[in-house]
């Protein structure tokens, strides 16, 4: 089942996810996951200037979005998910990041096993 999702836009939504969500880390990606009452999945992507210049930050966001598109069909329920890029993210392909993302979302219970 293809689940519809929207993006997190408000700063308050990001901060709520950071405070109340579970965190899953790897050297290439940090995932914050919190249940929401909206019934749809909402995602946000954060890349800081520590990642590199604008080109490298945009590539990191692009790779994260591509990896999420591959796992989005397996999502269940209403969740707020924030992905934070790390310095290794810009060197990975989306398929490599997809396996990391799948593991994080499975641990969080977003993806049923």
Give a concise summary:
By secondary structure, this protein is of the alpha/beta class. The chain has helices at residues 11-20, 54-71, 94-108, and strands at residues 5-7, 22-25, 29-35, 41-46, 79-85. A 5-stranded mixed β-sheet has the order 1-4-5-3-2, with helices on both faces.
Mean pLDDT: 90
Task: List segments where confidence is low: pLDDT < 50 over at least 5 consecutive residues.
Answer: none
**Biggest sheet, strands in spatial order?**
1-4-5-3-2
Strand percent estimate: 15-25%
Number of strands: 5
Radius of gyration using CA atoms only: 13 Å
* Range of helix content: 25-40%
Structural class: alpha/beta
Q: Secondary-structure element sequence? A: EHEEEHEH
Shape: globular
Largest sheet: 5 strands, mixed
* Distance separating the two termini: 15 Å
Count of DSSP-assigned helices: 3
Features:
113 residues; alpha/beta; 5-stranded mixed beta sheet; 3 helices
